[in-house]
Amino acid sequence: MQPLKYASINHSWFRNLTVGVTFFFTFLLFIAVGALLFVLKPSEILSALLSEEMFYSMKLSMLTSSASTLSVMCFSIPTAYALSRFSFKGKSLIKAILGLPMAFPELVMGLALLLLFGHGFLGPYLEAAGIKVTFSKLGIVVAQFFVAFPYAVRVIYSTFEDINPRYEQVSRSFGYGEFETFRHVTLPMARSGLFASSVITFARCIGAFGAVLVLAGGSYMNTEVLPVTLYLNISYGNLEMAVTSGILLMGIAFLAILSFERFEGGRL
Amino acid sequence: MSFLEVRGLCLDTGDFQLSDMGLKAEKGDYLALIGPSGSGKSLLLETVIGFYGPEKGRIILEGKDITDLPPDMRQISIVYQDHMLFPHMNVFENIAYALRKKIRDKKQIETEVKQIAGVLGINELLHRKPETLSGGEKQRAALARSLVARPKLLLLDEPFSALDARTREKLRKMLKKAIADYSTTVLHVTHDFEDLWTLANRVVVIRKGEVMQAGDPESVFRRPSPDFVAEFLGTNVLKGKVKTLEGKLTVIEAEGLEIYSADPAEPGEEVTVSIRPEEVILARGAMESSARNTLRGRVSGVFKKEHLFVVELKMGSAEIKAIITPTSCEMLDLEPGREIYAVFKASNARIIR
């Protein structure tokens, strides 16, 4: 049932106050975001967009974010399902550890990954197997994966929590095993939540900066993704390129939120 | 050996528990499980179907121990109060889903689905999504889905409790026919005694995870075990002592009243008398009747219960309830404090032990 929208008390001071605060801060945010769009002339944006560096950065961002989104979804679905449906030892600890990266800065995450995949721990073994994670394109995917994974698990976890386990039990009673039930009942019922999660994951991956910079290094036209382009060009004083990559990131985020709102029914 | 045997089932989930629960059902039986909320009725169903594993005890179905089998190997279906139709499938797909593990042939699936849809009157709804159906339609679709698989055992967990009285009545008739057509054994958890009278051939009264009484509805209602079952079933229960015997009748002095019962007892014996409230007739004056018991008292309260009225009477030191029709209620002009006579046969005053 839809909650009652207090239509009959339209003119209360409390209603005016809350609506006023909403308008004020949304307007400030709009001005701040809109400023990005009006700093440059359209011709300057166009020339920055068509530059070789921007093209490289966009392509690398799309490729790495798609790869990391796919990997995040592959691993976060079973993780979220296990956390939602099964009881096992250490579950609370796992939930706490998975939540950690959302609370501490991306830079710290990058440093932790650098230590893990660098020369101290896994690095030598991986390099012996021909896999180089640090200061490589693979490093971008790994950094994006670890930044986005906790968010994806959280969204998918709440999606599974919203599905009454009795649907699965009913399916089991018709002779379907656990995996068949998951495939035929749970996954289709979680469809919109999974879509929302993949959109949020993609947006997190494409916008990941600190962890990417520390693990993959922000090297020009090598491990340069859009946030790195923005950072490098600010350092050089090239405002056209910096602002254009900012506009691109903002556009992607806007599209992501728009699809999220549309498929999740705007459950803010 | 019975068709279904539940032996000494023990389970504690924290909120609900089963303690040494045991029951039996023969093939084709319709068991109504009744008891107060939280007594473990639904937990019993979910343990029988295999969603919970018992800490102790066995479940035997058709002579086979199924206690450790997963739910998909038991051939038991369940219908919940909130139907649990898969929202991403239409009604046809929901019903067909129950068959797909058994039958590969699409034509045969279609025939089976249409057959059960005909029995439950949902042929017109097959292409509809669950969200577009009314509560009664959803429950019919859920029943169809559970029956079409021809389960050995069908479990119903208050399937009608969210429906209005008319829909409930209609559904009971349909269910009765469907159960007969598909010759299924049923365990039905309900709070509605109407389900019990119209559908069940056996009733099991459960309290705190234990079976308090089991038998056919007639005997359980007419001769409930003293205390809990009698009180739960809403029976008038009076405690007293046999005063004397008058021919074939036993005269009992109970809570300031003299009651004649057709049941045998020994003079001086401490007994409990049960009188069903619907077997008590009310009259404004003492009336000529074959009923041996005519007791005078005063009305202490009148309450509406569905389409009938419950009248509470103060008689001696006892409280007696009577259930009467709205017409009788109007004719008697009942109001608290009014003098009234309660009349019932000696055969309706049953001595329970």
Q: What features would you describe in this structure?
A:
The complex is a heterodimer of chains A (268) and B (353). By secondary structure, chain A is mainly alpha-helical. Chain A has one domain: Orthogonal Bundle (MetI-like fold). Chain A contains 13 helices and no strands. The model of chain A has no long low-confidence stretch (mean pLDDT 91). Chain B has 353 residues and is an alpha+beta fold. Chain B is 24% helix and 36% strand. Chain B is built from nine helices and 20 strands. Chain B has a six-stranded mixed β-sheet, with helices on both faces. In chain B, a hairpin with a 2-residue loop joins strand 16 and strand 17. The longest helix of chain B has 17 residues. Chain B is elongated, with a radius of gyration of 24 Å. The mean pLDDT of chain B is 91. Chains A and B meet through helix 8 and helix 9 of A and strand 6 of B.
What is this structure's SSE topology?
The complex is a heterodimer of chains A (268) and B (353).
Chain A: H1 13-39, H2 42-49, H3 52-85, H4 91-103, H5 106-117, H6 123-128, H7 137-162, H8 165-173, H9 178-189, H10 191-207, H11 210-216, H12 226-236, H13 239-264
Helix pairs in contact in A: 1-13, 2-13, 3-7, 3-10, 4-7, 5-7, 5-11, 7-10, 7-11, 8-9, 10-13, 12-13
Chain B: E1 4-12, E2 17-25, E3 30-34, H1 41-48, E4 56-61, E5 64-65, E6 76-80, H2 91-97, H3 106-119, H4 135-148, E7 153-157, H5 165-181, E8 185-189, H6 193-199, E9 202-207, E10 210-215, H7 217-222, H8 228-232, E11 236-246, E12 249-254, E13 257-261, E14 270-275, E15 281-283, E16 293-305, E17 308-315, E18 318-324, H9 326-332, E19 339-344, E20 350-352
Parallel strand pairs in B: 3-8, 3-9, 6-7, 7-8
Antiparallel strand pairs in B: 1-2, 1-4, 4-5, 9-10, 11-12, 11-14, 12-13, 14-20, 15-19, 16-17, 16-19, 17-18
Helix pairs in contact in B: 2-4, 3-4, 4-5
